[in-house]
Amino acid sequence: MKTFKMLSMTAVLGDQNISIPLIDGIIINQENSHRSWTLEMYVDNTNSDLFEDHRVSGDLMEVKVVISYPENEPASFEVIVYEVKKIGDYVSVLFKGTLKRARRKYAEQLLTELISHGLSGDALVIQFEEGMRKRPQLEKDSAKV
């Protein structure tokens, strides 16, 4: 098994991307024949109803997670909410699922989007560097979800 630090998570729900502010998070690649992953995050209880509803329904959900380094491209997982445990004003949410195979190349998509907005030269470089640091949701992703 391999473990990774979870830096950020976005839940993809229909046409919405909901950024989940993390207090802490970990991802475990179980390295088994099912290609299973376990994700656990510790968050305030703002979105606890969302996760509890998914736990009860057993519905799959897509999450995008940045692992280990802020510069890393978000990895997409299909998960079920396995457990939601309230701890005071906070919640521990345990997910089980698989890594989605089709990962898009964030840098190329960001650059294409900036150029389509008419940026070039120094302005393009500045916006590209900022986008790679902040990782905003891309228009292509917004239209798809």
TrEMBL record:
Xref: InterPro entries: YwpF
Descriptive protein name: YwpF-like family protein
